[in-house]
Amino acid sequence: MTNLTRTNESWLTSASHQQWLHNQGQALVDFAKAARVPLGFASLDRLGRRQTDAQVDTVTTARMIHSFSLAHIQGLPGCGPLIDHGLSALAGALQDANHGGWYATPNGEDGNRRKYAYLHAFVALAASSAVVAGRLGAAELLAEAVGVLERHFWCEEQGALQESFAEDWSDCESYRGANSNMHGTETFLALADVLDEDLWLDRALSIADRVIHQHAAQSGYLPIEHFDAQWQALPDYNIDNPADPFRPFGKTPGHAFEWARLLLHLEAARKQRGLENPEWLLDDARHLFASACRYGWQVDGEPGIVYTLDWNHQPQVRERLHWTLAEAAAAATALIQRTGEPEYDVWYQRFWDYIDLHLIDRENGSWHHELGPDNLPSATIWPGKGDLYHAYQATLLPRLPLAISLASALKLRR
């Protein structure tokens, strides 16, 4: 991180910037309300329209429940009924009434009836946030989701989440994913607050130790994404499908930012609860952020952060995805809060400048979810505008402490 110019004031202490974040977050929430469909929530197109054949999916539904719960706790009207609608969907056609757990689509109608850790982590996160929001049925849903995570996905021997199973919980996939474990870590932070159990912070630390302190630290502090059942790296995984939206080939700078933030949240949460903290949590967060900036930002000569890198840290998929910039700004937020060092302020402002100038869609609303290498709207990986979660959280985190989790912190502020 060189050649950075210090600004006079941190935006995190600026009342006008805080108001801007609030206004931006409210606009994102208002836009996303149109995503409601009879069986849950579905993605919107780039104009904010709900297509007649829009397909409900469980991840989108869970993320919407989580996001609308945060908005409801803030006091934004209209979100409570949307939370309840989503909870009903998770207790209805999205759930497997015979074997337990959740399908990716209603009754597994897309033909894929496997059960994924990534999806179940978001169901548990959604339920935990809805509990904090005080919604009926949320506590029961949370207990069920936590039970599924513990019975099927959590592997005590490996100290991490297993990836997926067949519908009847047979056929454990031989793949292990850093992405699902990263979102498992996020969920565990929320569960520690809502359930008041230190166990979840110990599990989060176990995952972080394996994925970041053991593996990413040996790989230039850019997380390795794909592993076999024994947690041996799979460097050629998806080499023929490098732009996969969930399991892309190579390395993903956006995940380095996201992990940096989560490590600092974990450190703060453990400190708050009087638990021991290893020094590497802060050190690894710094290294992850630095590597993501060094190898991801403007590496092809244009502003923005490329989606993926090859194993030589060269741009692989050059599209700019909105969630990557949201997580970059959020990681800079966490490092400012933790260290107070001015270089992170510079990055924070740089990321929000980019978001404002390139990603915010002032004509049609919300944010462009994907830009091409020329920074013009694109739709090769993520068509439409299906995700409130990343952008909305980016507007909230600069206004909240590192601990506790978002829903609990917002409730304490009321």
UniProtKB/TrEMBL annotation:
Signal peptide: none annotated. Keywords: Isomerase. One of its GO terms (biological process) is carbohydrate metabolic process. Transmembrane segments: none annotated. The keyword Isomerase applies. One of its GO terms (molecular function) is isomerase activity. This is Sugar isomerase. It comes from Pseudomonas helleri. Belongs to the N-acylglucosamine 2-epimerase family.
